[in-house]
Amino acid sequence: MDKLRAIQLFVRLADLGSFTRVAEQTNASKSMISKEISRLEEALGARLLHRSTRNVQLTHVGEGYLQRAREILEKLDDADNFVQDLQQHPRGKLKINAPMALGITDLSTLFADFMRAYPDIELDIHLGDESVDLVEQGFDLGFRASSRPIDSSYVGRPLTRFKYRVCVGPEYLNDHPAINLPQDLKGHNCFVYSYFQGKNIWPIEDGVAVQGTLRVNNTIFMMEAIKRGQGIGFIPDFVCRDALEKGEVVEVLANSRKPNLTLYALYPARHFVPSKLVQCIEYLEQWFANK
């Protein structure tokens, strides 16, 4: 027995007072409706209706059950309306993990725009470059910039691509040998990003092993040392873009082959994805498409 269906038929029968009228409104037969009500009474162990050839009357138990049944159906309608309203006007909290440098640069602008578009969504953003388990730490959404395939345990939506640049300060170039080929880097002070998947092998052409006096887990920190002429960095363009435009650093090996860096929005695989998360991801895709 579909108990909810039986309750709905019972309430409608109480309102209309006739099996015939209920059958007309529901496109169901009178016998089917009668059987559903009988099954409900059997499940409850009590008679809800007095039936006659002309009308239907509620028993004392039926009157009390009707009142409570109405409350149940009203709460169900309210629950449905709540979900529909959220689908159209998302609200609530989104807990987001993003790389430090990307969060300080492009994503800070993006989410300022997002907050303006969705003022009822509360953002809880954690910036950091260390690897985290999104599910274990309760994140709704994570960002990963990678030149390699992402972890298949998440749903990954590619948002945009970045390029790598080999950056060096003009002062450093003036005081050190020229860099014309990737192999020329072996004689230079090349900085290493701690979380770089290739460790100290920069993926330029067939790969070149580098070494230097700085290993750091933040590329923005690294950029300051590069601008001050202390060494060379293999840097995503969202970090070095402004410094290149201002002439604070220059790019070398611009024509050498390097991998692209794809930015992914990651979220745990779920059967039902919350509306606020769907809206956020769609906004991200549109924002980067228009950038």
Structural write-up:
The protein is rod-shaped and about 105 Å long. The strands form 4 sheets. Strands 3, 4, 5, 6, 11, 12 and 13 form a 7-stranded mixed beta sheet that branches. The chain has a two-stranded antiparallel sheet with strand order 1-2. Helix 1 (3-16) crosses helix 3 and helix 1 packs across helix 4 (60-88). It folds into 3 domains: 3-88, Orthogonal Bundle (Arc Repressor Mutant, subunit A); 92-159 and 262-290, Periplasmic binding protein-like II (D-Maltodextrin-Binding Protein, domain 2, 3-Layer(aba) Sandwich), CATH 3.40.190; 162-258, D-Maltodextrin-Binding Protein, domain 2 (3-Layer(aba) Sandwich), CATH 3.40.190. The two termini are 56 Å apart. It has 10 helices and 13 strands. By secondary structure, it is an alpha/beta fold. The mean pLDDT is 89. Strand 1 and strand 2 (56-58) form a beta hairpin.
In short:
The protein has 291 residues and is α/β, with parallel strands linked by helices.
